[in-house]
Amino acid sequence: MKKQYRYCPICATKFVLRQLYDEKQLVCPKCGYIFWQNAKPAVCGFIIRGNTILLVRRAVPPATGTWDVPGGFVKEHEHPEKAMVRELQEELGVRATVKGFFGFYMDLYGGHNGPTSAVLNIYYLVSLPPSARLQPTDDISDARWFSLSRLPKHISFKHIHEAIRDWKRGKKE
Ligand SMILES: [Zn+2]
Asked: From what superkingdom does this record's organism come (predicted)?
């Protein structure tokens, strides 16, 4: 994973691998920049009513046309809860309320025509105003409620299956 980045983003000198603490890191031998490689934080909205879940259809790569949980990447200085509310406003035109934290799910994003990034998916339990009219826009083309026992065939990412599995387990306990 570490070798896919070759040049310092500050001064464009070729990176070297250097032992730092317990791991080898990409370090710039000229300016000293250390390229720490962490998962990118993304927020995912679990919007569940009874036995149904709201999923959105992706209009952009990767996984165009598949069903995803609403959400997106957190901006650099943004609190994840704010990112969650912002993404739901952008994608569905609704003012959502974050009700609680559900869990963290690791996954990969990208691939096909480019490198992948590790993603830290932050799942929140979210509610929408009861009368909210969903207006799919931005990077999604549709939004629909699905029965948790009859999900669509094409789910965008592995983490969605894992989170739904955990939700179902929690319900049984
Ligand atoms: Zn540098």
From this structure: Bacteria
Interval 17-74: pLDDT, tens:
999 999 999 999 999 999 998 999 999 999 999 999 999 999 999 999 999 999 999 9
Phi, psi of 89 (to 5 degrees): -65, -45
Half-sphere exposure of 21 toward its Cβ, with a 13 Å CA cutoff? Answer: 4
Residues with CB under 5 A from ligand 1 (ion): 8, 10-11, 13, 28, 30-31, 33
CATH of the domain at 17: 2.20.70
Q: How far is the CA of 1 from the centre of ligand 1 (A)?
A: 20
Ligand 1: centre distance to CA 31 (Å): 4
Give the CA angle between residues 109, 113, 116 to the nearest 5°.
Answer: 25
- Ligand 1 centroid vs 158 CA: distance in angstroms? 36
Asked if 79 and 157 sit in the same domain, the reply is yes
Same domain? 120 vs 47: yes
Q: Which of 48, 64, 54 is nearest to 145 (CA)?
A: 54
Residues in the chain: 173
- Domain of 73 in residue numbering reads as 40-172
The SS3 call for residue 129 is coil
pTM (2 decimals)? 0.91
Distance 22 CA to ligand 1 centre (A): 22
